[in-house]
Amino acid sequence: MGIVVNLNEERQKQPSLDALGELVADDLKAVNTEIVKRMHSPVAMIPQLAGHIVAAGGKRLRPMLTLAAARMCGYDGTRHIALATCVEFIHTATLLHDDVVDESDLRRGNQSANAIWGNQASVLVGDFLFSRSFELMVEDGSIDVLRILSNASSVIAEGEVMQLMTANDTETGEPAYLEVVTAKTAKLFAAACQIGAVVADRPAVEEEALKAFGLNLGIAFQIIDDVLDYSAVQADLGKSIGDDFREGKITLPVILAFRRGSDDERTFWRRTLEDVKQTDDDLNHAIDLMVRHNALNDSVERARHYSAIARDALGIFANGPENAALLELIEFCIDRPY
Question: Please, which of 85, 198, 226, 293 could form a disulfide with 34 given CB 3.0 to 4.6 Å?
């Protein structure tokens, strides 16, 4: 079936990461070099497994945020390279652990690391990457950087546990969902941006503005990710959909459809998500219910709310290529095909 959620049919130019990528291209090359260097270990499986997921096609969005934030704050040193690498290692470690917890066999269309090397190796290499990230923090020598990134790491872990507590629970409400999203995704976005101001030794008001930008961008990004899991457009693009549904994850589109549904519809959600008893037609029916109750459109509107806050947070910074690229990034995160 084909359900297309399009809130702005008159868009002339699809936002992209191109402007941001061009601005930080040289720095990102240096980050990629640092990633390879820091993944090295005499234990052969570690660079093999870590390299598999690092090279799996990610956009490097989080390290790009660190690089762009530092540039926007006028930083002209090199500390941001190692710290952007640190951010990517934290993110990659969480992906390795996520795939084990979710029992996922695929990551970005490729076999997940745990599907190839097993759960034990994936967890342990995730731990290795976390440890490497802390080595990078200590080498930087800034207590503020250490505080920000170590706090982000612990909050992310809390978010993962909170998600476990809400999994398969259709009684989960929007506040609990947002708490998970903030901890699991948005906290690292916020930290990645905030340290850009710290290395540039900028005033607290700019540091807090970048933190707010990253936090709200991260919330919006994750909400849209959750919408995309029920997107026929994504299916048309050859991308997998329905993973969250098959795993019984309670995301915002589900919460809205469940709350707005009839007793029979709620029985359907409990069977498919709580009991995880699903038939081949259930995903299509779930999408039908979301469309019927406007759950996908309204989830996108929630994301737009947080993206507006992120946009306002950049208002204290002077107009320039970095500011413009980050504003376009906001639109890119919201307007991904759904």
Answer: 85
Higher pLDDT, 239 or 74: 74
User: Distance from CA of residue 176 to its chain's centroid?
Assistant: 18
The closest of 78, 96, 69, 100 to 31, measured between CA atoms, is 78
Contact between 180 and 162 (Cβ < 8 Å): yes
| Number of CB atoms found within 10 A of residue 253's CB | 29
The pLDDT tens digits of the residues spanning 294-325 come to: 999 999 999 999 999 999 999 999 999 999 99
- In the three-class reduction of DSSP (H, G, I as helix; E, B as strand; rest coil), residue 60 is classed as coil
Q: Which CATH architecture has domain 18-334?
A: Orthogonal Bundle (1.10)
Residues 6+ apart with CB under 8 A from 274: 168, 169, 170, 248
89, 40, 37: which is closest to 62 by C-alpha?
A: 89
Within 13 Å and on the Cβ side, how many CA atoms surround 28? 15
Confidence band, pLDDT 50/70/90 cuts, at residue 144: very high
Tell me, what's the pLDDT at 267? 98
Query: Which candidate, 159, 192, 181, places its Cα nearest to that of 303?
Result: 181
Is residue 11 within 8 Å of 335, Cβ to Cβ? yes
d(CA 245, CA 172): 15
Q: Where are the domains of the chain?
A: 18-334
Cα(105)–Cα(299) distance, rounded to whole angstroms?
27
Residues 6+ apart with CB under 8 A from 27: 67, 71, 80, 81, 84
